[in-house]
Write a structure and sequence with these properties.
CATH superfamily of the domain at 141-310: E3 ubiquitin-protein ligase SopA
CATH architecture of the domain at 141-310: 3 Solenoid
Distance between the termini: 104 Å
Structural class: mainly alpha
CATH topology of the domain at 141-310: Pectate Lyase C-like
Radius of gyration: 32 Å
Largest sheet: 3 strands, parallel
Shape: flat
Strand content: 5-15%
Helix content: 25-40%
Length: about 300
């Protein structure tokens, strides 16, 4: 049948009036059927769109309710640990502290940045994350895994995060002043706009970290690994960068005034856009390796100060 139709069509005389009349009537019929079909189809598409948007709104409302329920549940359980089990007086490693740490890590991974700020504020007010010299008080965020957690704009000042795994996390615009981040892993972590003044990042791993507009005044970055990190418009005035590693790091418009660059290899960097007044460097030092500079760079002309042997 199909072959017959094709043969008849190929043998049609397209100059024949009857052919064009037939073609017009076919088009008219096609248009009529298209009009009949398109109206309910359009209505179905509109209804489908409204249904999908309504479902998305309902999912969002449900998600918000679940997150708020999780936050309220966390506060309730933590308050019980504080009041009934005297959590704030328990030593690091006690069953009560372990339970509180597990609860905290679980809720931080589940919640959004705004609610995570509330969690951190609660812990800070209860003195559960502060950097303590003794091990007689709990520090819930020490040596924990916070990878991928969104803590944007949270206040973590004076906290003990030493030895913690915080890689691929969002710590942008976070206040982390006077915080212990020694031996912490901050691989590919976003620290843009964060304030880490006077913080301890000794031996920290910041490979691939983003430090755009980050404040690190008087921070301790001795032996820190900053390879492949992006550092731009950052303030490291007075920071200690002794033997810090900068391989393949992007350095742009950084304030390094009064910093200590002893033993740092800067040979492959353009130092013209770095402010180096009174920054310390080493050469022929008895205890520290030489600071390495690009060829023909004069540290004294840049206002740097050579560290003398004791």
């Amino acid at each position: 049948m199909l072959n017959k139709v094709l043969i008849d069509f190929n043998n049609l005389d397209i100059g024949n009036y009857q052919f064009w009349q037939w073609a017009y009537l076919g088009y008219e019929e096609l248009y009529r059927w298209a009009s009949i079909i398109s109206t309910p189809l359009t209505l179905w598409l509109i209804a489908k769109k409204v249904t999908l948007e309504s479902a998305k709104r309902q999912d969002k409302i449900s998600d918000e309710q679940n997150k708020q329920k999780a936050l309220n549940g966390y506060f309730e359980r933590m308050t019980k640990l504080l009041v009934e089990k005297h959590l704030s007086l328990k030593p690091f490693g006690s069953p009560e502290v372990k339970a509180a740490r597990a609860l905290t890590l679980s809720v931080l991974r589940e919640l959004d940045p705004e609610r995570n700020k509330q969690v951190i504020q609660f812990l800070s007010d209860a003195s559960l994350i502060q950097n303590k010299l003794s091990g007689s008080t709990p520090t819930l965020l020490r040596e924990v895994s916070l990878s991928g957690v969104n803590l944007r704009k949270a206040i973590l000042s004076h906290a003990d995060l030493s030895g913690s795994e915080i890689s691929s996390a969002n710590l942008s615009c976070t206040f982390i002043e006077n915080t212990n981040l020694s031996n912490a892993y901050l691989i590919c972590t976003d620290l843009s706009g964060a304030c880490l003044n006077n913080s301890n990042l000794k031996d920290a791993c910041l490979i691939g970290a983003i430090l755009n507009g980050t404040e690190l005044k008087n921070a301790d970055l001795e032996n820190a690994n900053l390879r492949n990190s992006y550092i731009s418009h950052a303030d490291l005035e007075g920071a200690s960068l002794v033997c810090a590693k900068f391989g393949s790091t992007s350095l742009k418009k950084i304030n390094l005034a009064d910093s200590n660059l002893s033993g740092v290899n800067l040979r492959s960097f353009d130092l013209n856009n770095l402010y180096l007044k009174r920054a310390k460097y080493t050469k022929d030092h008895s205890k520290l390796p030489d600071t390495m500079f690009p060829e023909n760079f004069n540290p004294k002309a840049a206002g740097m100060i050579k560290v003398e042997n004791e």
